[in-house]
Amino acid sequence: MQSIDAALAAINALKPNEKLVYSQIAKKYGVDPGTLSRRHRGISRSRQAAAQNQQAVHPQHEAELIDYIDRLTKRGLAPTRSIIRNIASQLAQKQL
Fold this sequence. Notes:
Layout: H1 3-12, H2 22-29, H3 33-41, H4 47-54, H5 59-74, H6 81-92
Helix pairs in contact: 1-2, 1-3, 2-3, 5-6
């Protein structure tokens, strides 16, 4: 678990009557207080989460596309880049 995730877990574990001081929790877990505050309030998110939202094709669809390409290749029918792009565009429901 990353430090920021541990710090967020500590914040979420606070009881309703406990005082929330970002700087104390940030110091304890070795993270920037501003980052911790923004992440807790939902203003920012991890790079991984941001990248996931920018992905054109859902990871499950991507895995299915790779399996399909592998099956075609084993049968000697390797698809061209344009065929792969067309299939991915259909999965993403937008032009890639």
